[in-house]
């Protein structure tokens, strides 16, 4: 039922990942996280990226490329010029194309002759051909600005509708997801040059169904397969081993490998810019801008728990359409009000905020999503994963999880989220998603959210008292707005209403865009809010543990 | 005729490279430099290096390896333990072997899992099996020390014989040559990871027939094939080019590529130690010690003129057996007397000294080797090479060059070499190997030897006046020793004679090894030499240009 509420929006949402129909056999059920990852990685290996002239004859380009094999899909996008992503049906087509692609002639001796899957397509005779060329359809690779979004939200018929509009505008598109996997696959080409069994996989927001257009691509280098090879075979009286560089610690090996791959990207990788090696971090990584795809990338080495977190969110995001709509709305809300930030600090992270929403959804009655312990009970033998002594097992098959009986609207859920955390006893309690329960805080961090897989760790350890207080205050203010607002009056006043009101910085409504009228104007609201804050001040301080 | 003089020594000399019989078709003529290079490089790609226990059952190892394919050749050598170089008949055998070789188990997570062609072979049950294991025959990879050589020379029957003994002890063996090409091939694996069309080839002493056991391996990275690809194809109205890192100069591209490959060797290459990047040199290079093969290596980027110099020497070295015997003897002589040095400086280089010998041999009557202009006249269309505006064409087919009519013995040639350069007018004249003539010096460098391919350059520009004077003085002293010495008397006195006398530091005969007797002892010789030097002092100063 809950799914039906979102149904009319679902039809216009390009669902990334799980809803795509690829073959009829698995069409009856949603794919597992691993199936989606494997399929997308394999697709990306058959994909090339071509820089095109601003006007071109799409048909002729495709005709030309088709001479190297069947094309499965393609799209165009703008990123310092027009680019085409082209997915062939067979990997061999890429090699066939590469065989006839030339090395830039203009400065033949001044290029690094690394042959990637990034090409430039030009017309030999641009003038005479221009007549046949037409602009191509461009797939957007970034979301609209918040002020434009607010305009769109104005015309919706409910807060639920507004939340689905936001989701639709901000979520990753099918095209953007392909581009992310391609970026990983191109980095994988670098890693496989030396480690043919390695894989570069995206994790986090690119794959957990909660990614926003424009978010960074987190990727990791996986040697898993290599290590499995090591344990195989060895019969007879002999043993033959590779001579290999030995290092005193795995961390040092990771640092050296990342460092060299970083140098390779820097020196050989077309469009790999601003390489930063952050090798002394807890999790060593290489940051770089990948200009051809337009992504900011973070490359680290396989972190099994991070993948499990991605998979867990993938499952929650796929269980019920309200989950993602609520998370996207709340992330946008938190960002507008400065509760989250793109740089690390004492702010609540997007991951922590998402986990707060998950916890809230576990606590509904009836619950909208199951607890992690419940997901673990549904796990079968192949779902068993013990990582570093932690049991990270949970069901991977979505069809084994019963749909929720909960029928609350997103309007209700949004308002209740603010109320729930506006009144949460952060001083005493922590959020435990494994059990779906508030439990006593094991230590004094202002905000304590149990790491679902490493139960001794607090994923929101970075959050300080002032940031938590700000969050609680904003939640209360938002709950108040939603409860008190007169939608009809606001629409008459041409003021933002519902979600749009929450996405406008409080006390900063824009007089140019939204003409003020008499009645319950924003200044009136602000003074009311101020009085609310005053009256609640002692309560708030108690709640956040002062 | 000249060849016949050396014939009895040739039978015991393992001729590297050109004399090997590989197939009957080309057996009738000596192979060209390029044919030899191509064949050896291809062999090296089918070759693996295996670290073995100190005692092993050779038969069982070969039996085990044969399960992956036919073995063409193998040998064992000592280098921090026993190693086996094994050349398979097919390249696919290497891949087949690699598939079953394990990653070191002991510290599984602390290795860099780069899979090379370097393996370690161990017995699972070393104690029980030990009975079956026997020591294997080891091929020497270094030459005997000079004092041991001098003992061997004592028993020879002529100076010619002594010179062939020296050649036989010092020249590269078939096995050592294979090991050198393997070292290049292993570095090539690193380069091909990113540049699949590239080749790493040895040049200089490893391939010019004048290399001494233990000399460094000079290798270069060749992108030649890559660039040829670039010019191919391109039809239809479109053009497709690779996106590639562009750099303002070829030099910068070279530096970046060498730098990254240096890092890869350093961090991933088993046994690649002491990597030094010398990127700001005129010819940027990376130096490293390759422990598995035991070589000190210099990796640079393709230098066509250096290859042509190697080929020219290869031709001269193959034309007449006296050429190499004379060069090896004179290099050893120069080294003993401090005229050459392994570190760069104002000393005469081995290359310059070799060119002086070539010039001397061009000047004999009749000449023993042709001039470069004569070799150019014999060149056909495929031998044409213009490099950077310089005509580097010369004949590649050895059979086109007529054998010399000169029948002088090496005894005569050695003595005449000292006399010729002892009296050469270095003040006025330079050595021009292209024309085989002394010509007026174009500038005032103490020693001027025309670069055979870049005629404006002096290959011995580094040599200063004192070093040249020392060379001339030593040449005169050596001529005097050879002319004056009484071999029978010296043999009775158990003193070094002939070449051995020349290889004993003058005035430093060793009383422990060579007991002094009355008669023309070393001290008498020294005083005679001193008087000679005095009487010749003004003449010497005039000759060297003071």
UniProtKB/TrEMBL annotation, chains A, B:
Its cofactor is Mn(2+); Mg(2+). GO terms for biological process: RNA 3'-end processing. Residues 32-100 form the RL domain. GO terms for molecular function: metal ion binding; poly(A) RNA polymerase activity. Residues 159-317 form the Poly(A) RNA polymerase mitochondrial-like central palm domain. GO terms for cellular component: mitochondrion. Keywords: Magnesium, Metal-binding, Transferase. This is Mitochondrial poly(A) polymerase. It comes from Anser cygnoides.
